[in-house]
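Re: export button greyed out
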Amino acid sequence: MKITVRAFARFREVVGDVTALDLPEGSGLPALLAALASRSDESRDLLVDEQGTIREHIIFMVNRKRVSRSALDSIILAEGDEVAIYPPVAGG
Amino acid sequence: MLTEREIHRYSRQIAFIGEEGQERLKAAHVVLAGAGGLGCPAATYLAVAGVGRLTIIDSDKVEMTNLNRQILHWEQDIGRNKTVSAREKLGAMNPDLFIEDVCEVITGQNASALIGRAALIIDALDNFPARYALNLAALEHGIPCIHGAVSGYDGHITTVIPGETACLQCIFPDPPGGSEFPIIGTTAGIIGLMQAHEAIKFLTGGGTLLKNRLLIWDGRDSSVTFLDLERDPVCRACGECTQGAGSERGEP
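Workaround output, generated via the alternate export path:
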């Protein structure tokens, strides 16, 4: 199934603007994040920490609805879903 | 009550917001947390719009590397307190403006006293520990806060109304890392200006505020995306189970 990834801020520089990913039917959000993390060392560093845990501060949206941290592991994706990833900026 | 001089000075915007709107600006006390990349453009436009009272909080001194974006600070100000530099420039732009400058780091211990009874807070800070402390104080006092942040080509802004919208801790439960960030001056200018714009709308009652919406600015292609927000019922700062529990989270 095709999943569209919309990357923002620093993550957009690493994975590009809009990326379509082909995942097996029934894949969850963790599988998509693992696929993105495996694309490059930079991509992995942005998404996960040294222990392999998804970085806490990143905001994830599926079909423009925010996914809470606690729900992240249980989200199952479907054909045509759009996943947006925003690593928030902090400067001023 | 507006003076004749004020009616003339602000005539181009009074034609839009009315004398009542202008009086609201004149009566307003706005706390500006941070006199850097966001704070400089935000303060500039609030000052010339006729906001009556500004409290500017920043503990830093002007450095050479600030000058690509912090437009109230000039070469001659290097080594001086940012609050003093900002007060001088803003006072010259609009002598009717009452400005207090506070050269302090915002912490969980002083945030509540610093914001006092302001009508509005502009979060133009550059780090999340201070932002969390400001958020808690704003929630405690019920003062709306316009949050903005930037890095490189990227920025975001939202308006937090205590008890009504998601608070800063709901939106960003965990702080983004990093201390020194790369920045194009115009990115800070755009988001800082949006903060001033949001403030003017809030104070005059015009337009639609960025309540429960995070505006994400991407300067690479000048695109804007909105993220819908909602309160987190178990938020460590504003969640119902933590109301009145004090500021155990987020103090620097």
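The helical segments of chain A are 9-15, 29-37, 41-47. The button fix ships in the next patch.
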